[in-house]
Design a protein that fits this description.
The structure is a homodimer of 289-residue chains.
Chain A: E1 7-11, H1 16-26, E2 31-36, E3 50-53, H2 58-67, E4 72-76, H3 84-87, H4 91-100, H5 102-106, H6 109-122, E5 126-128, H7 130-133, H8 151-169, E6 175-179, E7 182-186, H9 192-197, H10 199-202, E8 210-213, E9 227-228, H11 230-238, E10 243-247, E11 256-257, H12 260-270, E12 273-277, H13 279-288
Parallel strand pairs in A: 1-2, 1-4, 2-3, 4-5, 8-10, 9-11, 10-12
Antiparallel strand pairs in A: 6-7, 6-8
Helix pairs in contact in A: 8-13, 11-12
Amino acid sequence: MTAPEPLGLIAGGGVMPLRVADAASRAGRPVFAALIEGFADPRDFTAWPHEVVRLGAVGALFAALRRNRVRQLVLAGRVKRPSFLSLRLDGEGVRLAAKVGRKAIFGGDDALLRAVVDVLREEGFDPLGAQQVFADLLIEGGCPTRARPDADAMADIRRGISVARQLGQADAGQGCVVQQGLVLAVEAIEGTDAMLARCADLAREGPGGVLVKLVKPSQSKLVDLPVIGPDTIRAAAAAGLRGVAVEARNGHVGTIVLDRDVTISEANAAGLFLLAMDADQVLNQGENA
Amino acid sequence: MTAPEPLGLIAGGGVMPLRVADAASRAGRPVFAALIEGFADPRDFTAWPHEVVRLGAVGALFAALRRNRVRQLVLAGRVKRPSFLSLRLDGEGVRLAAKVGRKAIFGGDDALLRAVVDVLREEGFDPLGAQQVFADLLIEGGCPTRARPDADAMADIRRGISVARQLGQADAGQGCVVQQGLVLAVEAIEGTDAMLARCADLAREGPGGVLVKLVKPSQSKLVDLPVIGPDTIRAAAAAGLRGVAVEARNGHVGTIVLDRDVTISEANAAGLFLLAMDADQVLNQGENA
């Protein structure tokens, strides 16, 4: 009997890579983690075989994955894109960067991710979204919190959907905060938590705003779905928001909710709603209202 | 011989209302300024007849304007939109709010401004953009700085144009910062200077980013054109940017540059470019490059 093939994990920062490794262990699947230097902390991964790899050391990364018999792999966690100069690409990296081309490297995040996924595939790996390996990472449609959005909140959610969609078309972000019809903040590369942090000062009196976070229309569905978790709820509550609206699971696409039980109980404790929605349906309801 | 009709000025915060009053005085035109309480500072307006008016006191505002024989008037300066509850509308305000309707009041800034301009017109006033009274407030096309954008900066400017246009369609902002193809920040209601303030931490190594600020496609051309000035240049330099790109004058539409000589000399001192462009032409050049 041969051991099951290990799941490869290219791990950036944040808790997402750890949750993927946990899910694999629960499923009895071995893991090999390539930790991106400066982003994933080796002290978090002592339970799994792992190696630390510099972001520009593409040849070393491929070698480590192959040495550990990795074929299926998941990219997870945040990596701040470095400047091209500071990447210090190794020989393999230079070869692939030339192939991928300037446009992907200097385009939006989505263009770069698609190029990375294509390269991994050509090298014989099978890159997957974490949600393809562990389907229950995606939240199902519905409102699992005690608080529910009222008609005003739904109007703010509809406005947020149209703003986030316009942004997504420009491959420039996927989140925004709307309060009483006003767009308080729009997310670029600062991240959702940083965007929420500035909303407390921008908010108006009266009913609080909503965070709307969407899957980008052109988003590489495999490796860059929106993620929320308890930290998102805490940041939303601190910003005076009334709730959070995300897209529900639709096949292998949707919103990854980390530590779902904690996320929901934090929302209930703070009186926030969490809505997992079909964005098209929400927009249509507004037109018919 | 009768005195020339005074120019009415509904003044919010910032230096813009003062520059309008200065320009009127230089042109030998009397001014009556209605200062929005909490935004315009009466100590700045001692050179002109003025009254302080609470934002919700619409009837009092109209009465003050009529008492001072105002017909032509300019809205200038920033007003943070209050919540509806904190407005404390007077009787006239309640009547007009009911007429303007919930959609304008709770829509984007642009929807509200259009409604305000319509109301002023129906009340017999003649609301104008500052640039309609003083055409030289708008910057002409060209690059008045010693530094000029190179090919990489032009690529960032083109990306910024497409992001800002998508945003403008959602009536949600008109500015963004792009560096090496990455959208570092997108402006909502925090204002350009606040957006620039967060860019220093988000910037990558290597060539700095550019600020792109556009006229919103649906923008009320009369009263809400983009404004830059020496503060914008200083904030852009502090954020590590290479330059600022805005739309040049096209009829009565374009970008208002406050204290132009100071703005240009600040840019030269910091090594930044200032480009006043035709955005369509810049996009087309990119496609043909």
